[in-house]
């Protein structure tokens, strides 16, 4: 089931910029982030990115472990 998730938040939300929200879905062994709009290296607009599931889960685990070390 696709989900819309916030992957980054603005430290000072009063600036009006907000955070980064993406649509995440799983297709087989591929994690897809969509509903993006940023300039790519070739000058075009990047609207979606794809990650291999194993690599994606490994990075989530690494980030979670790092966050646990910084929390009181």
Secondary structure blueprint with pairings:
Elements: E1 3-8, E2 20-27, E3 30-39, E4 45-52, H1 53-70
Antiparallel strand pairs: 1-2, 2-3, 3-4
Structure, explained:
- Helix content is 25%, strand content 44%.
- The radius of gyration is 15 Å and the shape is globular.
- It is of the alpha+beta class and 72 residues long.
- The protein has a 4-stranded antiparallel sheet with strand order 1-2-3-4.
The average pLDDT score comes to 88
State Rg. 15 Å
Q: Strand order across the biggest sheet?
A: 1-2-3-4
Give the beta-strand count: 4
- What is the H/E order? EEEEH
Could you name the ranges where pLDDT drops below 50 across 5 or more consecutive residues?
Answer: none
Descriptors:
72 residues; four-stranded antiparallel sheet; single chain; globular; 1 helix; 4 strands; alpha+beta
In short:
The protein has one helix at 53-70; strands at 3-8, 20-27, 30-39, 45-52.
